[in-house]
Amino acid sequence: MSEHEASAAYPWHFHVLHALERLNARYSLQAPAAVYDSALFAWAASLEANWMQVRADLRHVQAQREPVPSFQDISPEAAALTTDDRWKTYMLYAYGARADRNCRQCPATAALCQAIPGMKTAFFSILAPGKHIPPHRGPYNGLLRAHLGLVVPERGDCRMRVGDQIVRWREGEVLVFDDSVEHEVWNDSDEERVVLFLDVARPMRAPVSWLNEALIRFVAASPYGRRIVRRFNTWYERHGIDAGAR
């Protein structure tokens, strides 16, 4: 999928956000990069120190053998990237909204995520064997993306391209990258790959940091942000579960 196609998949206000990306880059506390050293972010060390608790929460969820939505079931824009059931998401937070029931199922993970300054979205991202996510970019560089490796296949080649860099997940390690840089994912193995997927507000100098926070809150409160929450609740209700996202 081209950058133009990816951009067209998002609602109009994301195009406004896109126009602000040069300003965000200028006021960023970190130099522009496709992939960042996780040591630049204090919260990454806390996640890595407690990653076994996060994986224990994941194992608890998996032991329940409950249905887990595919990404496009929650975010319809994801249908430009995936249309099958091989990329699943167990949502904890979405644009600041908390999925109360899922957070209760994963108390350690929820607490660790809540402690991250600027955390907006958090979920378990479950990629099936053989799954490929085509080239795409996120809508806005006011957020940084992080993955905490939880289950990484030992055989085969499970990797991501960010710009011109190839990176691979490691269990217990945090990978931080700029989601607005084109990236692509492959799970060329015969096992699932699972990461804790996070979107965190990019650290920036004031006053642009204030503008960034206001814009992210606007998107969360917009029909787009509320639709994500509604779709999430509706999907679980169809399966007889009160997820309680709000």
Can you walk through the features of this model?
With 246 residues, this protein is of the alpha+beta class. It is built from ten helices and eleven strands. The protein has helices at residues 3-8, 12-19, 21-27, 42-49, 51-64, 71-74, 100-105, 107-114, 208-221, 223-238, and strands at 35-36, 87-94, 97-98, 119-127, 132-136, 143-151, 157-162, 165-167, 174-177, 183-188, 193-201. Strands 1-9-6-11-4-2-3 form a seven-stranded antiparallel beta sheet.
Brief overview:
The protein has about 250 residues and is α+β, with helices and mostly antiparallel strands.
Blueprint of the fold:
Blueprint: H1 3-8, H2 12-19, H3 21-27, E1 35-36, H4 42-49, H5 51-64, H6 71-74, E2 87-94, E3 97-98, H7 100-105, H8 107-114, E4 119-127, E5 132-136, E6 143-151, E7 157-162, E8 165-167, E9 174-177, E10 183-188, E11 193-201, H9 208-221, H10 223-238
Antiparallel strand pairs: 1-9, 2-3, 2-4, 4-11, 5-10, 6-9, 6-11, 7-8, 7-10
What is the number of helical segments per DSSP (H or I, 4+ residues)? Answer: 10
Number-wise, the strands total 11
Distance between the termini: 32 Å
Q: Could you spell the SSE succession in H and E letters?
A: HHHEHHHEEHHEEEEEEEEHH
Give me the CATH architecture, please: Sandwich
Radius of gyration: 17 Å
Low-confidence stretches: 1-8
- The CATH topology annotation reads as Jelly Rolls
How would you name the CATH homologous superfamily? B-lactam Antibiotic, Isopenicillin N Synthase, Chain
* Global mean pLDDT: 89
Tell me what portion of residues adopts beta-strand conformation: 25-35%
CATH class descriptor: Mainly Beta
Secondary-structure class:
alpha+beta
Overall 3D form: globular
Biggest beta-sheet profile: 7 strands, antiparallel
The level of helicity is 25-40%
* Largest sheet, spatial ordering of strands: 1-9-6-11-4-2-3
Count up the domains: 1
